[in-house]
Amino acid sequence: MPKMKTRRAVSKRFRKTGKGKIRRNHAFMNHNLEHMQKRTKRKLRKSEIMSKNDVKRIKQLIAYK
Q1: Tens digit of pLDDT for each residue in 33-51?
Q2: In angstroms, rounded to a whole number, what is the distance separating the alpha carbons of residues 49 and 18?
Q3: Backbone angles phi, psi at 41, to 5 degrees
Q4: Nucleotidyltransferase among the record's keywords (predicted)?
Q5: Beta bridge partners of 49
Q6: Mind listing the pLDDT tens digit for each residue in 11-35?
Q7: What is the DSSP string of 11-63?
Q8: 8-61: what fold?
């Protein structure tokens, strides 16, 4: 059976932590930032752990990362 291919677009958006959890970046940080509060922008800068519902699907897409 052939190897699974890593989805390149997904591998650029998500990464695994040391314990195998999946980290992601927040949305809404590309443009039109002048109307946002500083506090909101500061919170969106940090990455976040994916919810358990989506982890299984993402792990299949980044199998070898």
Answers
A1: 999 999 999 999 999 999 9
A2: 12
A3: -65, -35
A4: no
A5: 23
A6: 999 999 999 999 999 999 999 999 9
A7: HHHEEE-TTS-EEE--SS-SS--TTS-HHHHHHHHS-EEPPHHHHHHHHHHTT
A8: Factor Xa Inhibitor (4.10.410)
